Give the backbone structure.
Amino acid sequence: MFQNLAKLVFFQVFYHYHQKILHFLYQWEENFDPENILQNQGYINLILGQLSRVYPVQLRHRNRDDVSLVNEILNYISNNYTRDITLEDVAKELGYGKHYCSKLFHEYIDMDFRHYVNGVRIQAAKRLLNDNPKRSISEVAYMCGFSSMKTFYRAYRRVYNTVPKRKEYRS
């Protein structure tokens, strides 16, 4: 009897949180704006918060040295994204092995190094295009470290799910 009651309570709680998650997903879909990154992150946090109540996760202890190294990698990218940089370059500059840096980057950032660098470049390009509407898209792409327009358009599409149009950046 007690087990059946416990199962019933569990399923009611489970159903309640899943209803909330679906509610947040519908709200997000109704208000979705690919340009509003903070709003999108907010909805993601709401959904993850509800999921964490149903599926508790055991957080791993983070090594302070690892976090510090990841911060150094991110700073290096922020300061050098206009150049052609590779994970090997960063690892060499910071005095670590390429594979170790790659493992930490994936573990903490959960993204491929090249995709992250291109995402930083795309955000910088979008800012430059907004601030300097007379500059061409290709000029800005090359200024931000892209070596080809094909790579720029592919990265832009990955971040914003569309390609940039010059008229978007005209005054």
